[in-house]
Amino acid sequence: MAKVPITVAHGDGIGPEIMDATLRIITEAGAELAIETIEIGEKVYLRGNAAGIEPQSWESLTRTKVFLKAPITTPQGGGFKSLNVTTRKVLGLYANVRPCIAYAPYVRTKHPGMDVVIVRENEEDLYAGIEHRQTADVYQCLKLITRPGTEKIVRYAFEYARANGRKKVTCFAKDNIMKMTDGIFHKIFDEIGAEYPDLEKEMWIVDIGAAKLADTPQAFDVIVMPNLYGDILSDVAAQIAGSVGLAGSSNIGDHCAMFEAIHGSAPRRAGQNLANPSGLLLGSVLMLGHIGQADVAARVHNAWLSTLEQGIHTYDIFQDGISKQKVGTKEFADAVIKNLGKMPNELKAVDYSKAKAMTLTPPSVPKKLKKELVGVDMFLDWSGGKPADLGAILTPITAGNLKLSVISNRGVKVFPGGMTETFCVDHWRCRYMGENGGTIQHNQIVELMQKLVSAGLDVIKTENLCTFDGENGFSAVQGN
Ligand code: NAD
C-alpha cells in the first residue's frame, strides 16, 4: 500500500509523549504513513508569532490535507490567537465530530451503554469573532448562521449516521427564542432530514435537550448542533461517558481534515510518563478511517479496547477493584501493541470495514428572492433621560415616508407606551419604517442618519430592514 502523507504536530505539555505513543501504536498496527512534522504552539507563540504556526507549516497542511495534532499550550495573556480556531477556519473544517462512548465497567461512568456522536458546526454562530463595544455599557457579539454553512453540517450529520449504521439524528437548537438564526438551523434540519427516510429524526430545544443528554444519554444517537451549544455539550458528553481524557475528535472540511484528542496539554503532567494517550489514539483511529486504512483503524481500536478490558490503565482512569495494573504512557502503548490482533470480550468490538461512503453534496444554489427595503433600525448611544424624552426628540425627525415606529431597549419596547418598570441602558434601537408598509430607498436612510447626527444624536449602527418574497427578514420588537 502506498504511504499516505500526513502532517503531524507533537504539541506542548503531554503532547510529545502521547504523540510518540500514538505513532508507535499505529505504525506497529500497519498504518502506511509518510509523516511530515511541523512545530506549532507555545514555542512558536513565544517567538512572537501571534498565530502559533509558521507560514511553511500551512504549506505542509494544505499539501497533505491531513493533520494529526497533539494538544498545545496557549500562553496566558493577550494577543495570542487560538490556533484551533484559526486552523478550523483557515482550512474550512466545518464539521467537528466527537464520539462519546462509555466503557463500563472498565471506566467509571454513570451511564453504561452511552454511545453518542456529537456533530458540531465548527465555523459559524457566535464564533465568527465579530464583537463590538457600542456604548459605555453595552458589548455585542454577532451570531451568524448561514444557509450553506447549516446545509453542510446537517447533511454531514445525516450522511455520517447513514454511513456508520446509526439509526437516529437529533437536532439541538433554541429556535423558540432565536427564531431566525436557530430557526433556519431547525428548518434546514427538517428539509435535509426529509431526504433520509431510513433515519429517525427528532428536535429538542437545547436547554431541555442538554438536560436529557446529561440524564439519559442512551436516548441519543447522533446529535447535530450549532457551534456554541456543540462546544459546551460535546465536553459534557465526553465527561459523562467516562473521561475527557478518552475522547478523540475529527474536524472535517471539503479539502482538509484535522484529528486530535479533545483534552488540553495538561502541563502539570508533562514529562512524567503519566498521561493517557487514549484520546489522541482514538483521534488517530478516526484519521485512519478517513485516509482509507479502515482495517488498521479497527485493529488499533480493538487492541485498545482489549487493553482497557485487561485492566491496564493509566492513573486518570485507574479504579481499585477494576483496574489490574497502573501504567505510564509508554507501558500503556506497549500493552496496546501487544494486543494488536486481539478482539475485546465484553466491550463492543469495532468493524470499520462496514462503514459506507458518504455523499456530501454541495449546498443548494441560493434561490432568487425579491428583496425589498422597508425600514431601518437606528441604534443610538443616548443617556439623555427617559424613553419618552427620546421619543419626543425622534418623532419629528423623518426622511420621506420613513417615520419612527418604535423604540426598544435591550429588545423590549419602551416607546410609544412601554412600562416604567423596564430597566434601560444607554443603547437604544429606534425602528423607522416606511409609512403604511411602503418600501423605502437607501438614500432615505442616509438622509435620516444625517438628520439624527445634526440633532446631536450618536448613531452607533444601522441595520436595514428588508422583506424577502414578502416575508419579514427581521424580528419583531418584544412587547410591540
Ligand atoms: P487539560 O485538558 O490540559 O487538563 C484538564 C485536566 O485533565 C488536568 O487535571 C489534566 O491533568 C487532566 N488530563 C488532561 N488530559 C489528560 C491525559 N491525556 N491523561 C491524563 N490526564 C489528563 O485542560 P487545561 O488544564 O484547562 O488546559 C491546559 C492547556 O491546554 C491550556 O494552555 C489550554 O489552552 C490548552 N488546551 C489545548 C487544547 C488543544 O490543543 N486542543 C484543548 C484544550 C486546552
Provide key terms for this protein:
ten-stranded mixed β-sheet, 13 helices, Alpha-Beta Plaits, Isopropylmalate Dehydrogenase, alpha/beta, binds nicotinamide-adenine-dinucleotide, single chain, six-stranded antiparallel β-sheet, 480 residues, 20 strands, 23% strand
Average pLDDT, to the nearest integer?
95
What's the CATH topology label of the largest domain?
Isopropylmalate Dehydrogenase
> According to CATH, what is the class of the largest domain?
Alpha Beta
**Count of all domains:** 2
Calculate Rg over CA atoms: 27 Å
Q: Work out the helicity level.
A: 25-40%
| Main pleated sheet | 10 strands, mixed
In total, the number of strands is 20
**What gap, in angstroms, lies between the N and C termini?**
67 Å
Supply the number of helical segments. 13
- What is the strand arrangement across the widest sheet? 2-1-3-12-11-4-5-10-8-9
> Which spans of ≥5 residues are poorly predicted at pLDDT below 50?
none
Strand content: 15-25%
General shape: elongated
Walkthrough of the structure:
- The chain has 2 domains: 79-268 and 275-354, 3-Layer(aba) Sandwich (Isopropylmalate Dehydrogenase), CATH 3.40.718.10; 371-472, Alpha-Beta Plaits, CATH 3.30.70.
- The strands form 4 sheets. It has a 10-stranded mixed sheet with strand order 2-1-3-12-11-4-5-10-8-9, with helices on both faces. A 6-stranded antiparallel sheet has the order 17-16-18-15-19-20. Strands 6-7 form a two-stranded antiparallel sheet.
- By secondary structure, the chain is an alpha/beta fold.
- The longest helix is centred in the N-terminal third of the chain and has 17 residues, at 147-163.
- It is built from 13 helices and 20 strands.
- Residues 14, 18, 71-74, 84, 245, 260, 263-269, 275-276, 279, 316 line the site of nicotinamide-adenine-dinucleotide.
